[in-house]
Amino acid sequence: MKIIKIFLITVLSSVVLVSCEVEDGKDLNGPSTESISSDLSRGELRDAVFGILSDMRTRLGTQVDGQAVAGREYWRVASSDPRWTADLLTGTLDNNTFYTTNPYASRYATVKDVNLLLEGLANTTETFTAEEVAGIRGFANTIKAHELLMVLNQQFENGIRVDVADPQNLGPFLSYDDSLTAIFNLLADAATDLSNAGSDLPFSLPSGFSDVSFLEFNNALAARVEAYRGNYASVLTLLGNSFMNMSGDLSTGAYFTFSLDGADIANPLFFALNSTASNVRLAHPTFLNDAEAGDTRVSKVVLRDSPITVNNENNDQLVGTHDVFVFTSNTASVPIIRNEELILLAAEANHITDPTAAVAAIDVIRTAAGLGTYASTGLGTSPAELVTEILRQRRYSLYAEGGHRWIDLRRFGRLNSDLAGSIDRPGDAIFDRFPTPANENR
Amino acid sequence: MKKRTHFSKMKILLLLIFAPAILLAQETITGKVVVEGTGEGAPFMNIIEEGTNNGTSSDIDGTFSITVSTLPVNLRVSALGFSEKVVNVTTAGDITITVSESSESLEEVVVTGLATSVKRSNAANAVSSVSAEDLAGLTPPQTLDGALAGKFAGALITKSSGAPGGGIAVKLRGVTSINGNSQPLYIVDGVYVNNNSISAAGLNSVSGAASGGNPSSQDNPSNRIADINPDDIESVEILKGASAAAIYGARAAAGVIIITTKKGKQGKTKISFSQDFGFNTIIRLRGQRNFTEATAEGTGAGNGALFTAARNNGTLVDYEEEIYGEEGFISNTSINVSGGSENTQYYAGFSNNEEDGIVKNTGYNRKSIRLNMNHSFLEDRAKLSLSSNYIDSQSDRGYFNNDNTTTTIGQSATFTLPWTQLFPNELGIYPDNPDAASNPLQTRDLITNSEDINRFIVGATLDVKLYEAEKSNLKLALGGGVDYYELVTTTIFPKLLQFQKPGNGGINGVSALGTTENKDANYSAFLVHNYTTDSDLNFRTQGGVTKQTFYRNTVGNIATDLIGFETNLDQGANISVNQFRQEQEDQGFFVQEELNYQDKIIGTLGVRGDKSSNNGDANEIFYYPKASAAVNLHKFDFWKIPVVNQFKIRAAYGEAGNFAPNGALFTTYTNTLIDGVAGIIVPVSPLALGNPDISPERQKELEVGFDASFLDSRINLEFSYYNKTVDDLILRSNIEPSSGFTLEFSNAGNLENRGVEVSVNADVIEGDKFNWNSNLIFFTNESEITKLDVDAFNLGGFGAGLGTFRIEEGKSATQIVGNDANGNLVVLGDAAPDFQMTWSNNLSYKDFTLSFLWHWKQGGDNINLTNLLSDFGGTSPDFDDIDLDPAGVTPNGPFRVGAFGSGNATPFVEDASYLRLREVGLYYNLSSKIREKVFGKYVSNFKIGFSGNNLINIFDYNSYDPEVSNFGSNGLSTGVEVTPFPTSKRYLLHLAVDF
Q1: Do B739 and A164 touch (CB under 8 A)?
Q2: Residue B642, preceding peptide bond in cis (omega within 30° of 0)
Q3: Does A102 contact B213 at a Cβ distance shorter than 8 Å?
Q4: How are beta strands B835-845 and B909-911 bridged, if at all?
Q5: How much is the pTM?
Q6: A25, B614: Cβ pair inside 8 Å?
Q7: Environment class of residue B169 by beta-carbon count within 10 Å: exposed (0-12), middle (13-18) or buried (19+)?
Q8: Which of B529, B674, B898 sits opposite A50 (nearest CB)?
Q9: What is the ipTM of this complex?
Q10: B560 touches chain A (CB under 8 A)
Q11: Closest alpha carbon within chain A to B542
Q12: Is it the case that residue A225 has pLDDT exceeding 80?
């Protein structure tokens, strides 16, 4: 049985052979999230910061389109996805499809980017100065607040989760008011941090932020949140610390920038003039019909060579004659917040306590749009009349750049009344919020 | 599928038992062994006096001489590659013995160990085999995996694209994985062969198919097993589940397909040449909507007048016919040379397959060169086998499947109204399509989407008998192989295209080049020991080690905003690059003990251990045991049923693994860019939270069954039942999106498949002139998710409003759910068929052979969105019919659009049953008399014939073909249809000559 012995030895040795080490697999295609969250280095700081700013743009088109269609600013037509002209006009929304889930998940993905950065900052072994730490934290929380506000704008009284740092242990859903408060507190803390950050942040920012200081940007966002909460006194204080300038360029502000380079993305809100029904944004007919004579802002829409007709199953038609043309190229920048909105926020904050200041602010906008002063319209300065005027100016000034109209009408309780005349087809309806995604398992 | 030739063997057995005692005497028989059909001498045939050790072999011309002790005598004539024959000789002197060539005799053994095989009659599993004749003899298949459809029990084989060059999903015995690999492992002559589907760079950036968050397996790529030339294949063995495949351990859960290529035979050099010519055409056109002026007006104001004018001028265009109406030319040329001496045999083959698609500018070309060598040395104690294969394959895939930009040829065509003029003018300028973002004729004529593969597959095995004695022997088996390929994908969308023009919002041309380098290698070393006791109990022990390495590097370069009409990557304003790398190393060992008691009882015990760099802990060894037993009842003395000449009962159990998919272990940042500065973000798609503790899936399969042969093996019946469970399912399940991720990986469920496989083979008629062999296969599979630790979740498809798959405890793994008219989520169907049945027949009359294969798939549902898309375009052929609305009021087009609008998925889930004549062939073999008159002695075989694929197709399914898959070949969600590349039927003429 010598053979058997030899054989057994061979079998044993082969088992030994197998016991030689196999190296652990590595992720060859990118850094793991742990590389940031476990220890943020100075070299990684810029990667994380630019990643966050870049990620803010993900699915921006879907979010803005959803809100703009809901607020009847325009119709979004996509022949390969007709839910744009079905669900979003009928108001029968799906809690598990792209217009609900994509913007929601994308905004929270940016929040995740921010939380990983904050975690890395807490665990860092890098020698960041106290000013640098404050600057990074102030930046991160400002962006986080903006992203949460974007989610809340769609979710409205569904409320949102604010504490989402641990995927396995997510925080509770807060009410709409509590969510706004939490967002405001984030901004306020960030403002404190930013004011302690010294003269320069420890990283550069993209060109979209070159017009304004980051603290001014923070204060502008906070003013928007306070206006949403109705805290008008606070709005005025914050505007004073922002980049608002009554006599300045209305377009001054913070912007998302786009390019066609490499991993960058193109402006998702741009379509060429006279695009086919495959993918087009058609101005809602009321935009032109409701415009005051002489308003130059009607140039935001352009007459098409031929109209586009969209049929639904009952053969009710939408006929679009004008293209939305706010962004005129696929690399045009998209405002995050700009002077024109701030001036209108000032008008709003003053409309009860100081109608004269409110009218002055309104007139800045009216003049820029080629219109006569508010006084020349003969309308009064009661709060109700001024709100109507402010909403009207916001509609035309901020047209198609952020889905503002739907939010604005909603916060003044005027969605149904103001949009009653904009219902296009039998069966269409107005809705005031997007459903919470099914996978949130509320 | 098996056709066995136990017939003569059984005779031998009976003769052995009943033959009277032998008287002593001396007689000499001389003669010649000739090959049936050719009449040529058969060299090196073994001729043995039945029941003795007395034997001889024929010389190079086939002549032999044998001295026997007495007459009459039975001579058994055999050799590899020929059917065994027993002749009764009553007188001494000259005789002629005719033997027939057979590939079937090779099926006699099936693989049961990594270094061993057993006689099929002793196997404990229903291992399916497909012979060269069954695979490619009837009608030449386009690809190997496609040729397997309908040929054996237990498989669901789906073509994911009709584009020439493949794209096929093979699922063995139901669902084996939800998010992991579900495609079988392919092994060719011992080499692990890669079967990746790699999407072309740049396609998704144009189609935007994945911009809605869906995976970009929607790009219609081919799969790499298509590179193997079916003509080179001698036989295919299919290990369908873990009970047979446990020997392959951690990679074997989806089954193993073992391919053996042709080898040379000792003897005269044989040259075979064959040439096929033919064409393909679309299986079914969907048809055109019958417009009236009123319905045309309904598609848009003013269209009624346009329709009427076009109708009156006779300028209505059938764009479906225009695009899919081509007849693609097919030409297959194959030449091979084989032969060899006693020590060295070789097989050298070259083939060139060309096939144009049914859409202009699509097609496939594969050139394959193979050289196989066998060499015996050290007095036949060592045998070296080498197989080498070089393949150059190219395919032009067109531009199809889902998109979000209405630019694919399929989608833009469904939106194009028949009065719209899209043909180029006399200057060659194409008008823009007013109905869609793309002019499909322009897109078809001007784009490039091609794959080009250069591939080497080289393998070697060395068997050495280290020791040999009367009762025992020891063999060393070494093996190794490399599969290396470079895949280049070229995607060009010139700036002339409607959707590339900047004026239309285009990006002024896209040129993309994707390069993949893939290198897989495997090595093994085994020792096999045989020991037979005096009581004829045989122990066979084997043990050894294996190692596999895998390497992939894919680089995609995309240039946009092109300069002039240049296509080089540096001739664009914007260039982006992406890279994907994968490296893996597996090591394992395998030990097995086989016991064989007089071929009556055969038992096997074995275990495989595997570790891999793809596991959370690379050095943790996962063990995969197996055990099986087979009892040949008919070999026992008590067996007294002469009608049943073989009866075997068998049971086998085994376990096998499936690795976590790439990326499951990690949460990886993806790169991004803003304002020229790079950044990192948690990825938008697939947004999966990795899990470093993930362990491989484990499949456990029990198979039981019996094999019975009746009437001297004229009728063979095989029955198997299996129960296959998969534990620790790796699921990419939903997670609350507020976590920043939408999906997370976890081991979170179990599933079970149960099924029955029955096959009956019968020589219905056996005569001198007329023969009829018939083979019937029936199989069915049922799956169930038996445990789910996460919430039920949807996957595949496009959401509950359009029909989606749903993983839910207690339900079928392949259920299709969707919202009904009341908005409730209900089960709308199941992708798994109720049963499948195939019926193949081989009829021969004199020199004519007629063979055909029917394939019936009963049940199994698809999610069909093609009609909905053409409803949006107003072009559906059944747009104005009224048969969907339960109330009988709304025509189908508006009904489907309305259902879509209200989120009702009911009309989109359709029964995908079919009955099809998968293959049919009629051949004529020139009889030897005529052949010799015409060609003299130079030609040994001359065959002509006609064949076809899919010539008859019967189905209710409301589109081109129920066999379709928008999401490619892997994963669960085959059977989703979004304007695919339609499948085709093929007609071919054949000529085959052997010299």
Answers
A1: yes
A2: no
A3: yes
A4: unpaired
A5: 0.83
A6: yes
A7: buried
A8: B674
A9: 0.90
A10: yes
A11: A11
A12: yes
